Every structure is written in C-alpha cells, then in structure tokens.
Amino acid sequence: MVRIVSLLPSATEIVGALGLTEALVGVSHECDYPPAVQRLPRLTRSLLPEGATPAEIDALVVRALHEHRALYALDLDLLERLRPDLILTQELCAVCAVAYDEVLRAARRLRGGGGQPTIVSLEPQTIDDILESIRVVAQSAGVPERAEPVVAGLRQRLERVRARTASLTARPRVLVLEWPDPPYVGGHWVPEMVLLAGGTNVPLQQERLGRPSVRVTWETLQAQDPDLIVIAPCGYHLAQAVAAGHDLARRPEWAALRAVQAGEVWAVDANSYFSRPGPRVVDGVELLAAIIATRPPTVGQPPRAQRLPPVGAPSATPTG
After folding, report:
1. In whole angstroms, what is the distance from residue 73 CA to residue 46 CA?
2. Residues of the chain with pLDDT under 70
3. CA atoms of 229 and 232, how far apart (whole Å)
4. Three-state helix/strand/coil letters over 75-94
5. DSSP SS3 for 79
6. Could you tell me the domains of the chain?
7. 220: closest CA among 183, 275, 178?
8. What DSSP designation does 250 have?
9. Counting beta carbons within 10 angstroms of the beta carbon of residue 87, is it exposed (0 to 12), middle (13 to 18) or buried (19 or more)?
10. N or C: which terminus of the chain has fewer CB atoms within 10 Å of its end residue's CB?
11. Residues β-bridged to residue 229
C-alpha cells in the first residue's frame, strides 16, 4: 500500500473518506479527523505563541509574511524516517499550512537519500474544486475508482439541500465572519455555501466567491447590513467561536449592527465545517441551511452551532 503523509487537515479528511486512513504514516499537527489519525506522528508545529488573541495572531501573521518568515516548522528528520511515497500539501494559503517551497525542499532532500516521493498540491477555491480534490487524491494514491462513490454521495447531499431551499421566498442577507479582529469577510467556497443553504451573500462577500477572504474596516462591515451573521473564525472550533462572539459583543461597532441587536448571530464549528476544503464542507452547508431555517428566535438551535444573545441579553450556554 502507498505510504501517505498529509500536511493538510482537509487532505487527511479526504484520505479518510476514500478509506485510505491505514495508508497514512504521518500528518500535520492540525489533523484531527477522522479520529484514527490522532495517533499518527506529527510532522509540523505552529510557530505562533499559544494563547494569543485574534488581533495578536493577525499582527504576527502579517509581520511573518512581510518578512518572509515561516509560520510552521516541518520535522525533516521524521519525514525521512517515515519514507512517504505521496505527500499531500497546498500552496493556496501561506497561513494555513507549511509553505509549499519548504515541502519542495524537503522532497529534494528525500530524493537525495534515495526516496522518490510524489508531491500533490491541492488548491480548491470552490465546492466543485473540493470535489475534484477527492478525485486527485484517489488518482495519486492509485485508487481512482474510490473517488466517484464519495463525490456522488456528497453531490446528492448538496442537491437535497438545494431542493429544500429552492422555494424559499425570504432569503436572509448572510455575512460569514472568517476572522473577528480585525474583521475578515468569508471567501473561496464560503459564499457558495451560503447560496446553497438558502441565503444571499452581502455584496462584499458575494464578490469573494472563488477568491480569498478579505479584511475590512468596521465601517465597511456595518455598510453591508447583514440580516444574519455567522461567526466562523478560520481554525476555531465551536467553543472558541462562541468566545470570539462574546469578545465582539464588547465592541460598540459590533453592537451597532442590526443583526447583533436582533440576536441573529450564530457561532459555528468553523474548523470542522467551514475552514477546511474537504468533505465536511457539505456538513457545513447542511448546518448553514439549518441555521437559516431556524432563524425565528423561538426555534431551537441546530447541533454544532450556537445562537448568541442579542446585545444586553443574558449569556447562552455553549452546546454542540
């Protein structure tokens, strides 16, 4: 069986969906799904300090990129010992994983020692691209026949959501906050997720379909005037997203937003269902559709998401 190293959580999830988890010999420090991969050797670590606030993280990332410094460390010695045949990585986002150039240098070192690893870089920017990534990984691992059943199943689920939301007459203007401080509006596949789930994107977010998320000012955010806000910070699980929402509630710019005052703000498990371009993005579409369907404040919350209280209301208890 091919020996696979995945340096990307979404790629690890794709490997799992293809039934190839046993072929994995090493993963990144962020790979946590499927659960079986948590026992595997970790080839990377973050160079950002633990416990930094969103604003501090953003400043550190911006400075590191400006100075061409790495955000992650790759354990080259461990990579050599694992002797992979296939390395899965990306060059779409320098913030999301080990830099592609560093992976290339590592592969050259392996080849110098007699190894011949294949490097596959996944660059999905839309939902169709994500589904195509599944085919690419299956082909690269030598099992192309495994891709189509997985892709077909995901497409069927998307079509079921589309069918349920097609007749909606009231489609809320949705803003997905990809980072809380400074604020970033969601991009790439996120605007498409909103449309499939029965919402409409605020204008600036619609412009980001298939393009990176964008940093905005609070004034620009207020001008978008969303009906519904989804707090989905990149890399944050639900409890972290809820905490970010409570921090935002202290900002007067946030409190001035109509959706915030109306209690139309939801925190979600972004790390599992929004940030990673893998199979569980489809779960994210289903989750968004549930959020949109339960917008009246009296209706219960869907799993894996939490409605945050209106400004001035008592705090909610995290669930999911």
Report:
1. 6
2. 48-49, 61, 64-70, 92-102, 104, 111-115, 295-303, 312-320
3. 9
4. CHHHHHHHCCCEEEECCCCC
5. helix
6. 4-123 (3.40.50.1980), 167-308 (3.40.50.1980)
7. 183
8. T
9. buried
10. N
11. 175, 265
